Amino acid sequence: MVSFWLQLAIVLACIVIGARISGVGIGIAGGFGLACLTFLFHLKPSSPPINVLLIIAALVTIVSTLQAAGGLDYLVSIAERLLRRNPNRITIIGPLVAYLFTILAGTAYVSLSLYPVIAEVALEAKVRPERPISAALIAAKFGITSSPMSAATAAMLAILAPSGVSITQILLVCIPSGIIATLAASFVVYKRGLELADDPEFQRRIASGEIESAVRKEKSEVSRSAKISVWLFSIAILLVVIFGSFSSLLPTWQVGEKIVRLSVPHTIEMLMLGTSLLIVLACRVKSSKIATASTFRAGMVGFMAIFGVAWMTDTFFIQHKSLFIETFADVVKAYPWLFAVALFMMAAMLFSQGAAVVALMPLGLSLDIPAPYLVAMFAAVNGTFFFPATGTTVGAMSFDRTGTTKIGKYVLNHSFMLPGLAATVTAIAMGFVLSYFVF
């Protein structure tokens, strides 16, 4: 038993150290922890999550290709027009737009580009920017777990597909619950804080000249290649949903006496890579632009995080699988929401939805938690907002020139905590309700 606690201490220490380093640090810390478990305690390493990693690599490639072709900027321009049409309802419209466009793109990059627009529209409408910005950041996180193109959803599908879960079932639970969660986040912040006219920090910045009228960027002409890339990308999304929902459409082969069908994860990988090539050819995208795209760098950071930490945690959990089942199976069956708490905290420590999915969802299956319940609790991996240390969180705060979006005196009382908790609880509750009808 002493050995178990020492191993657990190493796993947790590596997660904490990796989180402090952030970025690729999570992955390399996981690799170090795996080495310790293997060489010091002679644990047999599990197989790395190859399917999950390959899907993520393919998704990162197509999103980066879309960005290189100008497609992401085109999506942002559409979103900006939607936001400026309803300035007085920015606290409702802003988060919904962030949610929708994150679903379409499969990445929070789009929402990161929207935060300055949301901040300026709110300021022009004399709405406290903290309200729409905080809700929009949370909405974007739920957009990731509602998107068929995100790494987190890809990981979820790869893990649950053997249990008979399809991409359509995941989306039928996550999209409606995500919309309701987004509205819940907007609702709890709708009248939050002082109005700008009564906010002392805002008035101080006005008096000191720190806040001046924002100069709108001139609308640039959208290139034909950007539009083509978005259309091709949209077709790829549609094909993923179709093939993921109707596996009978996939090719089969006779292997011995068995009929083997092309797996959904492999189908997604082929579609993403194939569509990436079509975008490159149709839009004349230079391959060097794909590799230097911000989404490619961010995606590869996520890839490494999942690679290292998931391999380490999987090795640890498999070694002690019987102990975990014996200790927690009855409790989790009686109170399945406790597993959602574990998912939430793991995501908060790893700052990654995908890494949290790969680290804990296999354990959920081992504990005999029904797959529909795991889908219902998928939203819990959006706990990455808990500690205000991610790039998107810091970026969102920096875009608010009024200073209303901020980290509180006690760190955890930051602008995103209230809408984040409200959205998470709402999404999980709705997830359980919807999973009853979907499965």
From TrEMBL:
Please name the GO terms that the record assigns under molecular function. C4-dicarboxylate transmembrane transporter activity
Presence of the UniProt keyword Cell wall biogenesis/degradation in the record:
no
Pfam families documented for this protein: DcuA_DcuB
> Membrane-spanning regions, if any?
23-43, 50-72, 92-115, 167-190, 228-250, 262-283, 295-317, 337-361, 373-396, 416-438
Give GO cellular component annotations, separated by semicolons. Answer: plasma membrane
Protein keywords: Cell inner membrane, Cell membrane, Membrane, Transmembrane, Transmembrane helix, Transport
**InterPro entries the record matches:** Anaer_Dcu_memb_transpt
Give the protein's biological function.
Responsible for the transport of C4-dicarboxylates.
NCBIfam families, from UniProt?
Dcu, PRK09412.1, PRK12489.1
Return the protein name: C4-dicarboxylate transporter
- Organism, per UniProt? Leminorella richardii
